[in-house]
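[Solved] Which block belongs to which protein?

Original post:
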Amino acid sequence: MATVGPLELPLDGIEAVIFDCDGTLVNSMPAHFEAWCEALSYYGAANVFQEDVFYAMGGRPTKDIVVDLNSDYGLKLDPDAVAMKKREAYLQHLGGIELIEEVVEYARKLRGKLPMAIATGGTRMVIEKTLQAVGVSDLFDEVVTAEDVAHGKPAPDIFLHAAKLLGVAPEKCLVLEDAPAGIMAAQKAGMTVVAIPAPLDLATS
């Protein structure tokens, strides 16, 4: 299983914990990249999305990324069509997804002690299937997706909505995130952020 090292995070003043999913709870980013490659190739745009750029854009909604690719490469891809094809391709790779065990074990230890949510840039159907595939569907009190807010990461909307559902003030929330867009979103929301994977440097806004 994917590892990041033992998590011993400060919880002084923290009343809720919010987790990103892809790249934080589950090692699904390689599967997402493969799905992107398949979807873009299907629509005649093979090799336009380099792996380093993909990881830099992690956490953002698929349609938003397609809009950026159109702008950067002079393409005319249909964001809805590419998103659907990418989703179909990703679901074919679910069998290869692994838990990031240390993060999930941390969540298990907090279960029943603090309210917890997932805040993801993915769609509800995809995230639910991902959580089911790795057996952690029942671990979290709330799941907030890009479909639940007006603006995806790096806007703070997803994290603010998660805090509202949990009934906790944003400044009392701890966020675990792996992607630059998600870290920025949580900081904009006024939350304490820990970057996953290691080094686990505490970054407070």
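(Second protein starts here: sequence line, then its structure tokens.)
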Amino acid sequence: MDEEDAPVTIDADEDGVVDAVTAQMSEHTSFIVLDQIISATAMLFTAQRIAAEAHRRGIRFLVDGAHAPAQLADPVGGLQPDWWVGNFHKFPCAPRGTALLVIPPEGGQDGQDLWPLIDSWGFADPFPERFDEQGTQDLCGPIAAPESLRDIERLWGWDVVRRYMSDLADYAERRVSEAASEVGGEDCSSPVRIPSPAMRLVKLPHGNRTPQELDALCPVFRDRILNELHAEVAVTQFDGELYLRLTAHAYVTADAIDRFAEQSIPTIVGWLRG
């Protein structure tokens, strides 16, 4: 569902998200793709309640949990989706391109109607074996992902890491929004009421640029921040507003957040005014 089809406002609470999404369901709805954590807004969707309503109506649904693995302790728990997919090259720190597909072991999809986009030697095998031999498929990611999860658990423990990420994300949102507000001369605090544990938004002043102009600006500014300021942040737009999306992990420190707020934010706001 896009913004026009499902008008979930950025300041919606849990009830508002559920109401907005379920209001789009009808007797003609047969399939739903639901983001678990929204990339553009860092919002944590109330997936369990939406999934329950989809189940009640007999609607099949796929949960896009790209940012959920490791950021959420149990991203699939309570969902019972027909399909759930999540990326392991984000918070679990596995190699790029590593992902996980989950289907219910019983009572739902058995996987026999799932096929790889590129068939190879295993085309005649049942699911999931038919996905195992796809010619030049790089198996480094699937092999490394369990080791990455175990190493972080061994070094710090995932519960400790998740608490650290959430606390640091809170600090980053407050520190960076204060800096942007001071330099930009307007309130740059985040309007998001249900943020994900380790991701936060900070609003950026952008003048009177249109949403189309902001869409074109986002990748340019992301690359410029990386190449000139040596900081990795996402630049997103939603409903005509421009945002920095900040992400915390075990390797991010409060000192790094302070430097970004003090040194980079004035430069970024200056670019937007130029």
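Accepted answer:
You had them paired correctly. Confirming on the second one: The chain has a mean pLDDT of 91.
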